Hints:
The protein is an alpha+beta fold. It has a single domain (about 1-164), classed as Pnp Oxidase, Chain A, CATH 2.30.110.10. Helices cover about 15% and strands about 40% of the residues. The chain contains four helices and ten strands; from the N terminus they run βαββββαβααββββ. Strands 1, 2, 3, 4, 5, 6, 9 and 10 form an eight-stranded antiparallel beta sheet that branches. A hairpin with a 2-residue loop joins β4 and β5 (about 45-55).
Amino acid sequence: MKDVDYMAVAETAMAQIQQGAFLTVKAGxxxxxxxxxxxxxxxxxxxxxFMVAVRDSRHTFTIIEDAADFTVSVPSGDMKKEVLFCGxxxxxxxxxxxxxxxxxxxxxxxASPIIDLxxxxxxxxxxxKSAMDPARLTPDYEPIYPAKDYHTLxxxxxxxxxxx
Length: 164
């Protein structure tokens, strides 16, 4: 593992996240990963912050609501098949790790593990969450939510950032 500055890799990470990355959460004995395609990386509250959006209808939502942290694993190699699978299948119905032969390794600073793959890894402590208020959403974004399954935004202080 090679420690990296989160801002030095932010542009690369965000470009890959648009193609898909893995958000992994653990709470107690519950563990799940899902694909994310939206996120932000920045600086807020005098801290490095990684914000992820999870729809309330997702299985991951039921876990992250009880979690203290999350990890984001941004693959540098070809993981299109796994990213697609984890973005279209629910951990309620199956073990996505087993189905995709994804291995985890413990986080260095958080309870949630990372996906053991070449790429950039962020370990984040949840410091704030906010459910979207649809009344405050600009009307031209409403088509993104035809089922009215809005996101909850999770802001994680980046505690560790490294490449494998």
